[in-house]
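Prompt: For my understanding, could you write out one protein's sequence and backbone structure tokens?
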Amino acid sequence: MSGPQCLWTIDGDAIWETDCGRSFVLITGTPLNNKMRYCPYCGCPLVTNERVDPGPPPKHPTRGFAGLSPERRREIARMGAQAAHARGTAHRWTPAEASKAGQKGGSVSQSRRKVQ
């Protein structure tokens, strides 16, 4: 390949250093495994001198909340609840509402069983 290229090399901590002076972290695989063909920083064609076994590409990469640990998900949910309560937009169940919802939940599943 002729013309300018951006060479990416990996250090021991899974951080890819670029010829254009930037750093990039990949959770799994290599830039080529992740279908990266161009450097997102300088736009030049991306080439690597991979010294690691890339392994198979991930079948189903986890993104968003699926990639987080259960503890981290709970922490984020807790922060959202605290923010909602601080704004006054959170819902608080009264004992009467909770009782009514509990009664309604059982009746819905029983009525579906009768239809079948």
User: Anything to note?
Assistant: Residues 95-115 form the longest helix (21 residues). Strands lie at 6-10, 15-18, 23-25, 46-48.
